[in-house]
Amino acid sequence: MNYIFYLLIVISIVVSAINGKLEDVVNSILSGAELSVKVAFSLIGIMAFWLGIMRIAERSGVVDFITKLIKPIAKWLFNEVPEDNKAIGDIAMSFSANALGLTNAATPIGLEAMKELQEINKDKNSASNAMCMFLAMNTAGFQIIPATVIAVLVGIGYKNPTEIILPTLIVTGIAFISAIILAKLFQKIWRVQ
Amino acid sequence: MSFQSIINAISVWILPLMLIIILTIAMFKKVPVYEAFTDGAKDGFRVAIDIIPYLVAIIVAVSMFRASGIIDYIGHLLNGVLSALKVPVDVLPVMIVRSLSGSAALGIFSDIANHFGPDSYATKLSAIIVGSSETTFYVLAVYFGSVGISKVRYAMIVGILADIIGIVAAIAVAHTFFL
């Protein structure tokens, strides 16, 4: 992360100084910072709502039920997490919300899962293997129906926008499986460093 | 059109059904739903505030990167490879921006769709790319930020590699389906 942060900023400044876009880059600092706060604030309401619903799901045993349901897969994916840990249920719910296209719900539930994973994390400053696996699955963006994309296609008068679903599903499936394999692979390699 | 209306109905009903199921189970188990809800919701504000430093770091860096015009240079560099793979040059910004900024990728996709129209290969390929991936940088910043983790270890590399695999897959799949 340190290198990426450094490189993004230094490369942007150097490149823009050469092609005369330095002013744009400087302006983008302010607009970017403003946008970050806007994004965070726009999350407050929906975050509160889903964290509230999740607390109900937790107390009524829904999360435990889901945890038990996916135990066999979870054992392999998150081998360092105790099998009855609530994080597993949260991860499953967040993932389902993502897959169903409920992005607004997926983020708060996913953050709840991160909180659970952080509680059993040994080094609080550093990502655990379980977190890396969870986020690898998450950044692959597995989604059954790409609703936003379909909405844009409908908007331009695309005759059969649902024909995009199958190819998209194949691609996201490939990326998703690769992400899991890569995370498992790096879990073994990274330990050395 | 009927398949599409089924899909529309599903996406409208998933959320309400989830709410009904969770709330009904809770009532049966005598969970005080109102109290449990407000108790959980309290965390919403704290989480949103906690992620601000991480969001500022990532969003500012990405905004600078996009404003610098470097994406055009990468486009020129990759021109040869792209034309060999029959990838329209205009789709390249979507590929690069997809992992960095979700709203920007969607914006560029809308431009392409409106400019090239429904029958173009550029529209179809960029639709697949945008629909099949997540904004890796944003997800990592928000999720790790919410628990105060700055050492992300291999999560970033895995995310980027998976995105690259996804783009290669998108090119291959779009090629078989639409060319």
Description of the structure:
The complex is a heterodimer of chains A (193) and B (179). Chain A has helices at residues 2-19, 22-59, 62-69, 71-77, 86-99, 103-119, 129-139, 147-155, 165-190. Chain A folds into two domains: 1-60, no CATH class; 66-193, no CATH class. Chain A starts with a helix and ends with a helix. With 193 residues, chain A is mostly helical. Chain A has nine helices and no strands. Chain B is mainly alpha-helical and 179 residues long. Chain B has two domains: 1-41, no CATH class; 43-178, no CATH class. Chain B has ten helices and no strands. The two termini of chain B are 24 Å apart. The mean pLDDT of chain B is 89. The interface between A and B is large, with 105 and 100 residues.
Taking the alpha carbons of the first and last residues of chain A, their distance comes to 16 Å
Number of helices of chain B: 10
Low-confidence stretches of chain A: none
Average pLDDT across residues of chain B? 89
Radius of gyration of chain B: 21 Å
Give the CA-CA distance, first to last residue of chain B: 24 Å
SS elements, strand count of chain B: 0
Question: Largest chain interface and its two residue counts?
Answer: A-B, 105 and 100 residues
Shape call of chain A: globular
Overall residue-averaged pLDDT value of chain A: 88
